[in-house]
Structures are given as structure tokens and as C-alpha cells.
Amino acid sequence: MIITGLCFYMFSTVIIASAVMVILSRNPVHSVLFLILAFLNSAGLFVLLGAEFLAMILVIVYVGAVAVLFMFVVMMLNVNFSAMRAGVLQYLPTGGMIGLVLLAELIFVISAWQATPAGLEVLASPTPINVTNTKALGDLLYTKYFYLFQAAGIILLIAMIGAMVLTLRKREGVRRQRVAQQVGRKRQESVEIKKVTPRSGL
After folding, report:
1. What is the C-alpha separation between 160 and 164, in angstroms, rounded?
2. What are the residues whose beta carbons fall under 8 Å from the beta carbon of 202, sequence distance 6 or more?
3. pLDDT digit string (tens) for 31-40?
4. Do 128 and 137 meet the contact criterion of CB atoms below 8 Å apart?
5. 1-80: what CATH class?
6. Which member of 54, 63, 104, 134 has the lowest number of beta carbons within 10 Å of its beta carbon?
7. Rounded to whole angstroms, how far apart are CA atoms 83 and 14?
8. Residue-wise pLDDT tens digits, 67-119
9. What angle (nearest 5°) sits at the alpha carbon of residue 161, between those of residues 159 and 165?
10. What per-residue confidence (pLDDT) applies to 123?
């Protein structure tokens, strides 16, 4: 029990520190690396909760795909971050309002906790017996939250298309493939028959 508590506080401290460094880092690549560190420690918290499937999904999907994709997009965009930081004060009121809303949500969630001899625990329904984490998660995702699950997939698809559009830049002197022109061309435009005289060489 003591080891579990120590691991919880260790993972939580690293997550909070990594989240702060994601915001405060001047180098965007370092921000992505701190984000990966936060994801890994979040997976450790899921393991402590007994949700091994969610921990593996977090590592495989977010660390192995999403965070690495963020890094490649940041490196390919070639954004002038010094110019972006110059006008950060004009967005400070909006960011402060969003921060207050998130703080109110956290207070609302914490107020639903109750003190017990075993510590603070969230009021929840009893855990089913003889049901694995994967089966319980699948039952919820594909029954009660099916439409929300599909909506999340559509949002991720839109984000992926947006990342492709942002990184696709037109440059002078670079030849690009035109699929419609290739498919729509006729035989006379692409095939030419020539009569070659024997032993005439090239």
C-alpha cells in the first residue's frame, strides 16, 4: 500500500512538472518531448488503477503515433515562434478565462469525492466481478458511447487531414503529380509508334 502511494505521488508530480514544461519550453521540440514524458507517466497511473489495457493504448497510440506526429509537424511547419510570442499578451485574457473554467471543473470533480479511512475515493458504481478491463471498455464504447466513439474518430480524421494541408507547401520548380490529368489522358497522347530500321542503331 505504501509503495502504491509513493508511485502515485511520483507519477503525479512528474506529470504536473511535464505539463508545465510543455507550456514554458521555448523550443517546440522540447515541448513535444515533455508531452511524451507526461503520457508515459499517465500510463503508469493507469497501471496503478488496474487498467493495463488503457495504459498500453496510451503508450502505443499517443506516445508512438500522436506525439511523434506532433514532433514531425512542428519540425516541418517552420513557424517563426519568436513572432508568435511577441503577441502573447493579447491572448492572455482569453487564456485566463479558459483557465478559470478548467479550475471550476476541477473543483466540481473534487467536491464529488468523500473521505474514507482508505483515503479519498470517487463515488462510483461497484466493479463487476469476472469482467476484464478490455471487455468492460468494449461494452461501454460500442453500446452506450458508440456515437461519441465514432465522433472522436471523425475528429481525429479531420485533424490528420489538417496536418497534411498545413505541411503541404507549393514550391517553384518542383514537379507534382496530377492524378486527374494522368487518368484523363488519351492513348494518342501517351503512346507513340515509331518504325525502326533494322541494324540502324540508335
Report:
1. 6
2. none
3. 888 888 898 8
4. no
5. mainly alpha
6. 104
7. 30
8. 777 777 776 666 666 666 666 677 778 888 998 998 898 888 888 766 555 55
9. 115
10. 47
Are the beta carbons of 19 and 37 closer than 8 angstroms? no
φ, ψ of residue 119 to 5 degrees: the values are 120, -165
From the number of C-beta atoms within 10 Å of its C-beta (0-12, 13-18, 19+), residue 11 rates as buried
What does the alpha-carbon distance between residue 35 and residue 70 come to, in Å, rounded to a whole number? 10
Task: Spell out the SS3 assignment of 18-32.
Answer: HHHHHHHCCCHHHHH
Please state, in angstroms and rounded to a whole number, the distance separating the CA atoms of residues 38 and 16: 8
Q: For the chain, how many residues are written? A: 202
Phi and psi for 201 in degrees, rounded to 5? Answer: 75, -165
Distances (CA, A) of 40 to 4, 11, 144: 17, 9, 29
What is the 3-state secondary structure of 88-116? HHHHHHHHHHHHHHHHHHHHHHHCCEEEE
Residue ranges of the alpha helices (H) in 78-185? 81-86, 92-110, 133-139, 146-167, 179-184
Task: Tell me the pLDDT of the chain averaged across its residues.
Answer: 79
| Contact of 49 with 11, CB cutoff 8 Å | no
Nearest CA to 85 out of 27, 19, 17 is that of 27
Residue whose C-alpha cell reads 473534487 in the numeric block: 110
Grid coordinates given for 9: 505521488
